[in-house]
Hints:
Blueprint: H1 6-18, E1 28-31, H2 38-46, E2 51-52, H3 65-76, E3 86-91, H4 94-97, E4 108-113, H5 116-129, H6 138-156, E5 164-168, H7 169-174, H8 176-187, H9 237-254, H10 260-264
Parallel strand pairs: 1-3, 1-4, 2-3, 4-5
Helix pairs in contact: 1-3, 5-6, 6-9
Amino acid sequence: MTGVPALAKAIAGRLVATLPQCAPERAIFVIGHMRCGSTALSNVLVSRPEVSGYGEAHVAYRGRGALGVLLLNQWRRQSWRPQARHLFDKILHNRYDGDAWPGFFAARAIFVARAPDAAIPSIRALFATIGSAEYGSDAEAAAYYAERLEAMLALWSRFAPTRRVALTYEALTAAPDAELARVGAMIGLSPPLANAYAPRAAAQARGAGDPLTSHRFARIDAGATGQRAVTPLAIDPEMRERIDDLYRKFVNLAGTQENAPVAARQ
Length: 266
């Protein structure tokens, strides 16, 4: 909980000690990278009354008190549901789930990744559009992508098989109902997850998701995901091989037959 004020830490600790909602096994995490479709997936999940959350809360999960911090963040954003069974967070950076405390892995985890030839230009385009110099080159965005997928693959093995599921962006946008059924079954939601959510035009502050387009949509739709023409990435051959290998490994986890990085270059 680095950076959390002492009073907030004390309150968070008290919440964890008294509220069953803060039990690690009740948490749900979307674990992905930027521009992987996590905003739409998060919106579907938090549209359910059983799930309390709004998106990326920017909480470092280095101790059980982090779940209390998560609840406080939701309360500040007016998105906390006291009667919900699950607390939700979306994690897109290693600084939040790196060095996670053992209880983190009692949660349910939804891993999501997107083929690098689409994800990396999308990361660059997002930051350029919001006027940020961060990830200003393919090489910088590819380095983030590679480091994040390496961390995700390491995290995967630490969750029990019954408490994890891996999705690709490509499968999620091509067959959202089938992929959401996998997610809902892993969590144990009934009735099943529906591919629908309320547009969140007023909720695009830090952490709520894509600030450019997500407020226009109310479902996961292949025509609304900003598909771009594939152009060769300006990265060195070693990085090219690294990101292709990492994505192939993730696809194997997801149980699909996709081979997007290779196909994109043919």
